[in-house]
Write a structure and sequence with these properties.
alpha/beta; Rossmann fold; Dehydroquinate synthase-like, alpha domain; 15 helices; binds zinc ion
Length: 345
């Protein structure tokens, strides 16, 4: 069996770590292109400029979805700009745009997430969209980002719902990975599997203390552990094991207006519960309890998704997903519908 392991090259996390940005830029080049949205520029320009007083840089303002056409055009414009490294600052869209731009320009990249809502920051995958914001395809990068720099003061200052959604996304990693490994003979490593498990254990052991820290806007050991679980462990876990039903349920739900009102991690949390129920996994009640305590969705009512016809259509969408075909090969629509009935209350 082939064994592979993928990971970000360097991961740095701590309070006010953005102050060290120039040090990391200087490892790779003399001039940086900072890709950021106009809204985030307003919020963070003071911090950025303070930390970059000795570095030559240009802002690259990017306010739309990571759209292949726009990013290719932008990369052509920047060829003569003397930029030697891209720095992406922001949420999922800005970070994916920055990763794609660095890929098209063949430049190194530093990623600075301003929220901990998903595990996308460390990943070597980019989701590309059309001009209108419709998902088009994944772009597989040559490698994961060179550096991911997480300033936990910035994460603490962001709305709590993002942090909670990030936990929702991270809860799925271990369970999806386990199912994936069972259904597929290929490429996984002891390290990859261990990280996926550690991600789940870190959440269970730290979430209460972490949320206390968050509410007081004060970092503590548990909070730092959980940020690491949301951003680093969850990513390494899923990239080195695989995705399954939980993410497919989330993808299916985003095809409906009701689903698009929720964040990715919120939908994945619900998907994880459904997956555990179908598997008859003994961790179901523990995870249900965790999801309830975090006030993440645990039923169709919570999602305001109660139209039976739509739930039927949702089943069709889910069963078309590649990850489901790979990991739940014999899952029948009737079984999925029957399980869904349990979550209508
Ligand atoms: Zn996810």
């Amino acid at each position: 069996m082939l064994r592979t392991f993928t990971s970000v090259s360097k991961y740095i996390q701590g309070i006010n770590q953005i102050n060290n940005l120039s040090k990391y830029i200087n490892i790779y080049g003399r001039k940086a292109g900072i890709l950021i949205s106009s809204e985030d520029k307003e919020r963070f320009s003071e911090k950025i400029e303070k930390s970059l007083k000795d570095v030559d840089f240009d802002y690259i303002i990017f306010d739309i979805f990571p759209c292949e056409n726009h990013l290719l055009l932008l990369s052509k414009k920047l060829v003569l700009s003397k930029i030697e490294i891209i720095v992406g600052i922001g949420g999922g869209r800005s970070l994916d745009s920055a990763k794609a731009l660095a890929y098209y320009l063949n430049l190194p990249i530093i990623i600075i997430p301003t929220i901990a809502s998903t595990d996308g920051a460390c990943s070597s995958l980019v989701a590309l969209y059309s001009n209108e914001g419709i998902f088009k395809k994944y772009l597989k990068l040559k490698s994961s980002p060179n550096i991911v720099l997480v300033d936990t003061q910035i994460i603490l200052n962001a709305p709590k719902k993002f942090f909670i959604a990030g936990i929702g996304d991270a809860i799925s990693t271990y369970f999806e990975g386990q199912v994936y490994i069972k259904g597929n003979t290929g490429k996984t490593s002891v390290l990859g599997r261990a990280v996926a498990k550690l991600c789940y254990e870190t959440i269970i052991n730290n979430y209460e203390g972490a949320l206390k820290g968050f509410d007081f806007k004060e970092s503590n050991e548990e909070f730092e552990n959980l940020v690491e679980a949301n951003i680093l462990l969850s990513c390494i876990g899923f990239e080195n094991t695989g995705l399954s039903l939980a993410h497919s349920i989330s993808n299916g739900l985003t095809k409906f207006e009701e689903g698009r009102k929720f964040m990715h991690g919120e939908l994945v949390a619900f998907g994880t519960l459904v997956q555990l129920k179908i598997e008859e996994n003994k961790e179901f009640y523990k995870v249900h309890n965790l999801i309830k305590n975090l006030n993440l969705p645990d039923s169709f009512n919570f999602l305001s998704f109660t139209d039976i016809m739509k739930i039927d259509k949702l089943c069709d969408y889910i069963l078309e997903e590649t990850q489901v075909k790979k990991t739940f090969k014999n899952l029948e629509k009737e079984t999925l519908l029957e399980t869904f009935r349990y979550f209508i209350n």
